[in-house]
Amino acid sequence: MVNEIYAEMDQKHGDVEYLRNRAILTPLNEHVENVNINVLQRLPGEFKVYNSCDSICKGSTFSEADDVLYPPEFLNSLKFSGMPNHEIRVKIGAPIMLLRNLNAKKGLCNGTRLIITRCYPFLIEALILTGNRIGDTTYIPRINMCPADNTLPFNLKRKQFPIAVCYAMTVNKSQGQTVQNVGLYLPSPVFGHGQFYVAVSRVTSPTGLRIVVVDSVKDQTGLTKNVVYHEVFENLP
């Protein structure tokens, strides 16, 4: 899939149009991370690693033993949908996606794609690839974020860059975006109503869609599930 969608990666890794018109979609975040690491390893240059500062919000718990019960190593291991991981590995020239609204007037909204141009210790310089400010140079700082997950017995605060590498992205995150070349990578079937339709409808070129199915249905090669809840069509006029 990577060879097909990101062909000629070694020559065009810094081409804005090349990166804007390509994306690999997959259902789960764990598959997204695997694909992104695979592509990043092919990109020339050294990795820049950014680690978050994780802590428990004061006042969210009532135990003085929280520092013992929830050490930094445990907090760092937590992953949440819509939040950056503790460790972010990037390279200059890699495309990234914003995970938070930073400045709508400057085109820095949740889902905006950019390409990294410089990496500083506490700042990332990037070029905007999508939206109404294409071509503008911007700077992304670290910010404090709290997950929406209410299952934890405490409120986590993570200070990190609100970004994720986006050679690949989840199907849900791709909603509202269109590209010329789309690779749909399915190591497992889609699990939500309309996900398959959303994925295949992201492509704008008649020949730009590629699909790889790993776990086929009932041992039949090349088949996958298309999850549709027929109940939503009941009682329609």
TrEMBL record:
Signal peptide: none
Species this chain originates from: Daucus carota subsp. sativus
CDD domains documented for this protein: SF1_C_RecD
GO biological process annotation, one example: DNA replication
Stored InterPro entries: P-loop_NTPase (IPR027417), Pif1-like_2B_dom (IPR049163)
Protein name: DNA helicase Pif1-like 2B domain-containing protein
Annotated Gene Ontology cellular component terms: replication fork
The organism's place on the tree of life at top rank: Eukaryota
Stretches assigned to the DNA helicase Pif1-like 2B domain: 73-118
Alphabetized Pfam families for the sequence: Pif1_2B_dom (PF21530)
